[in-house]
Amino acid sequence: MDSITRCSVIVVGAGVSGISAAKVLAEKGVEDLVILEASDRIGGRVRKEDFGGVSVELGAGWVAGVGGKESNPVWELARNSGLRTCFSDYSNARYNIYDRSGKIFPSGVAADSYKKAVESAIQMIRHQEANHHGGGGIGGADLSKLSEQLSDPKTPIELAIDFILHDFEMAEVEPISTFLEFGEQEYLVADERGYEYILYKMAETFLFSSEGKILDSRLKLNKVVRELQHSRNGVMVKTEDGCVYEADYVILSVSLGVLQSDLITFRPPLPRWKTEAIEKCDVMVYTKIFLKFPYKFWPCGPGKEFFIYAHERRGYFTFWQVRLIYI
């Protein structure tokens, strides 16, 4: 027979949201709780690994959304825990463009190429809008010709700038209102202890820990949740290893990817309006490639954190970031 554990609240997921929720509950006097985490650690999408003798972030690497009208809660956590960060100025990359021989393009050439690409894109959009609304716009054939004249990059530097402007990272994401309220600045986590340090600092406030390890029995690692039954009488959560947990309430803090993959069965099923909302959300993939070279050949100093590689092939390892020295 499956073992049954009873508590007041079950928190599924030990990422930032799960640990934060459990911390608030404990501060409000709800200590009879259980945290179920599928992996062998806390952190969720925050994860560091040793690479070439240094710590690198495989998951989240920035605190995004700083400097706005409202304070980003993650930024507050980072500051309160003493996490070391560095402001990321992506705009400087446009002036740090290198060709395949390792020579940097003169700043004037880079600036002119960037300005030309931006103006070309603006003109194209204006002509498309005018044609769409019938406000004296040009015809389809002429528009195609204009498109070729204005925005067809040919040289390596033009191809690189075109890629950065239109395809790099989150170019197609609609603005998120809460993110805009937090601000548009981003800070890179440049701390040898890793981004996960803020999670452990939070956990230490309500979970028993010793020498940087969480030993509290309320945190259950390697517990993959497969089924969640809910009714007016409470909730029942079943894990892959056959354990059963019963509680009055459950807080589900798993990732959007888990919810969209149907890894967790809900009984009864979630209402249609909720499943449709889940499906409408997009999951973006940010691919990081870490390389270690035998000697340093990259630019250093203020404004040199990011640079662009101009190649004859569009999008061929275009955007680079220099690893910062931990202070």
UniProtKB/TrEMBL annotation:
<feature type="domain" description="Amine oxidase">
    <location>
        <begin position="16"/>
        <end position="300"/>
    </location>
</feature>
<dbReference type="GO" id="GO:0006598">
    <property type="term" value="P:polyamine catabolic process"/>
</dbReference>
<dbReference type="InterPro" id="IPR002937">
    <property type="entry name" value="Amino_oxidase"/>
</dbReference>
<comment type="similarity">
    <text>Belongs to the flavin monoamine oxidase family.</text>
</comment>
<dbReference type="Pfam" id="PF01593">
    <property type="entry name" value="Amino_oxidase"/>
</dbReference>
<dbReference type="InterPro" id="IPR050281">
    <property type="entry name" value="Flavin_monoamine_oxidase"/>
</dbReference>
<protein>
    <recommendedName>
        <fullName>Amine oxidase domain-containing protein</fullName>
    </recommendedName>
</protein>
<dbReference type="InterPro" id="IPR036188">
    <property type="entry name" value="FAD/NAD-bd_sf"/>
</dbReference>
<dbReference type="GO" id="GO:0046592">
    <property type="term" value="F:polyamine oxidase activity"/>
</dbReference>
